[in-house]
Design brief:
CATH class: Alpha Beta
Family: Belongs to the SOS response-associated peptidase family.
Organism: Paracoccus maritimus
Number of strands: 15
Low-confidence stretches: 219-228
Keywords: Covalent protein-DNA linkage, DNA damage, DNA-binding, Hydrolase, Lyase, Protease
EC number: 3.4.-.-
Distance between the termini: 11 Å
Strand content: 35-45%
Helix content: 10-25%
Protein name: Abasic site processing protein
CATH topology: hypothetical protein yedk fold
Order of helices and strands: EHEEEEEEHEEEEEEEHHE
Number of domains: 1
CATH superfamily: SOS response associated peptidase-like
CATH architecture: Alpha-Beta Complex
Length: 228
C-alpha cells in the first residue's frame, strides 16, 4: 500500500502534461508538495460534467465512519487512501467510482517503508530526462462522504489504485504498489469503458523505474496528520 507520495511538478507543467486548459485549472497558486499524506489536499485531474479535463484539489482518502471499540462512540473517520485493483468491481466502497469517477493523480515519487524502529524509507520514481519525471497514478474520486458529519462530510476525496508489486518494489513491499499509467493511457483511464480501464491495472515495468532516495523514515507526525 502507499501512505505517502510527492508531486513536485509545477502547475504550468501539469496543465501541459495532462492537457488541461487554463480556465479548467482550479488549483489557485500551487507550489508543489514534497510529501502528501492521507487526508491532505493534492491535485487531481478529472473529467468535468461537460467532458473536459480539469485540475482540482481533493483530500486523499475516501472517508468512512468509525466507532470506538471501548466506548462505542464515534471517533475520527477512517481514510481509505488505497483501493485494491481486484476489489474495484465488487466492493461497495469503490465500485461506483470505478465505473463513473476515475481520475489521474499527478505524482513525482511514492514512498514505501521497510522495517521498524526505525523504518527505512524508499522513494520510487520513474526513469526519464529529469531526476523525478512527472507521471500519473490511477485514481478514483467522489464528492461527499456518506455518514460523515461536519466539514469533512462535504469533502472531495480521491484514492489511489494499487496492484501487484513489481520486481523493484517487491523487496520493500512484497505485495502491492500503486498503479502508474502510461501517458497514452490517460484518456482510457479517464473516459474509457470499465473493461478497457481494468486492463490498465497492472504493475509498471520495473526496468522503467528507479529508487531515488533511501533513508531513515519520516512519520506523519511531522505533518500533523494521523498515522493511518
Amino acid at each position: 500500500m502507499c501512505n505517502l507520495y510527492a508531486n513536485t511538478t509545477s502547475q504550468a507543467a501539469m496543465r501541459e502534461i495532462f492537457e488541461v486548459m487554463g480556465q479548467r485549472d482550479h488549483l489557485g497558486n500551487y507550489r508543489g508538495q514534497s510529501a502528501i499524506w492521507p487526508k491532505y489536499e493534492a491535485p487531481v485531474v478529472r473529467m468535468s460534467e461537460d467532458g473536459e479535463r480539469e485540475l482540482v484539489e481533493m483530500h486523499w482518502g475516501f472517508l468512512t465512519p468509525q466507532v470506538s471499540k471501548k466506548t462505542g462512540k464515534p471517533i475520527k473517520p477512517a481514510a481509505w487512501n488505497n483501493a485494491r485493483d481486484d476489489k474495484l468491481r465488487s466492493s461497495g466502497l469503490w465500485k461506483d467510482s470505478f465505473l463513473n469517477r476515475r481520475c489521474l493523480i499527478p505524482g513525482s515519487a511514492f514512498r514505501e517503508a521497510k522495517g521498524k524502529n526505525p523504518a527505512t524509507d524508499f522513494w520510487f520514481a520513474i526513469k526519464g530526462g529529469a531526476a523525478r519525471p512527472p507521471f500519473a497514478f490511477a485514481g478514483l474520486w467522489r464528492a461527499g462522504q456518506p455518514s460523515i458529519d461536519g466539514e469533512a462530510g462535504d469533502w472531495l476525496t480521491h484514492t489511489m489504485v494499487t496492484t501487484t508489486a513489481n520486481d523493484l518494489v517487491k523487496p520493500v513491499h512484497p505485495t502491492r504498489m500503486p498503479v502508474i499509467l502510461d501517458e497514452q493511457d490517460y484518456d482510457t483511464w479517464l473516459a474509457g469503458s470499465a473493461e478497457d480501464a481494468a486492463r490498465l491495472m497492472r504493475p509498471f515495468p520495473s526496468d522503467r523505474m528507479q529508487i531515488v532516495c533511501e533513508g531513515i523514515g519520516i512519520t506523519a507526525d511531522t505533518a500533523a496528520v494521523d498515522d493511518l
